[in-house]
Amino acid sequence: MSGTVTGLSGTSLVLQLSTGATYEVAADGEFTFPEEIAEGTTYEITVANHPVGDDQNQICVVENGTGTVTDAVVNISVTCIDSQQVGGTVTGLADGVVLVLQNNGADSLTITANGAFDFATEVAEDADYLVTVATQPTTPNQVCTVVNATGTVAEDTPITDIAVTCVNSYTVGGTVSGLVGSGLILQNNATNDIAITEDGNFTFNTALVDADSYEVTIATSPTTPTQTCIVTNGSGVISSTDITEVSVVCTINKYSFGGEVNNLVGSGLVLQNNAGDDLAIAADGSFTFATTIDDLSTYAITVAAQPITPR
């Protein structure tokens, strides 16, 4: 199993087979793994160690590095490119908390103090980088934002201007009561949906910082039975404290019901619903019971007193 290395200028380039065997390449040109692999065996070649130099490190990329042995494998290509460090500065991080950054969705870097940082894995020149916050600090809660987070590594130019700024953050939440239906969804600032399934405390996942405004609204009302939920203390401005006093009170929707009476000539007709809520009917026309009933409740309208005079 062999191939070719090009662009190598550093030392200590180490390739590794999926069997665990390693091979150090010292210079450009052809290389051959001393370990043979039986036909029909799958293989993968990766870079176990990228080249380092006195003034310049490199990143090497393997092409045609995976497959199944059917004959002699001779087309493996390893290309080495000069690489640069990617880093910057963290400010505002509270004492004793942990911030985790990532570059290009990997290469996690744990930061516990303000100051300069560099990712362990360099990025090849002419390649892109994207620095994100993988884990925000907690205890106290903070929100860290990244400026100059993305770009392309230029030749002979390490990235040093990434700025991560952390500020204390605060949660927004409160209490739900009266919920008996399903499907209640709350929102804060028209986003950050939170599904509520029972009475009790709630807290939105997305934290806010000082001077941010908040507005808690009902995105979806409960059904089965249908309910109307009212939010109080639902809006304001963050002022160095968590918001805990938002109140969401849900009540079951009530509905009136009735019908129509025809051909009534006597007096004394009395209707009832569910053996109560007496309703005296004096003439033909529409009628509506005074008492409303909850959504999904049963009703049974009966004649409590028949009309008389005449019979």
Walkthrough of the structure:
With 311 residues, the protein is mostly beta strands. The chain is 0% helix and 56% strand. It contains no helices and 33 strands. The strands form 9 sheets. Strands 1, 4, 6, 8 and 13 form a 5-stranded mixed sheet that branches. Strands 9, 12, 15, 17 and 22 form a 5-stranded mixed sheet that branches. It has a 4-stranded antiparallel sheet with strand order 3-2-5-7, with no helix packed on it. The chain is elongated.
Report on the biggest sheet.
5 strands, mixed
Q: What is the multimeric organization of the chains shown?
A: single chain
Mean pLDDT: 94
Uncertain residue segments: none
Query: Which percent bin holds the helix content?
Result: under 10%
Count of helical stretches: 0
Strand content bin: over 45%
Essential attributes:
311 residues, mainly beta, five-stranded mixed β-sheet
Briefly summarize what is shown.
With 311 residues, this protein is an all-beta fold.
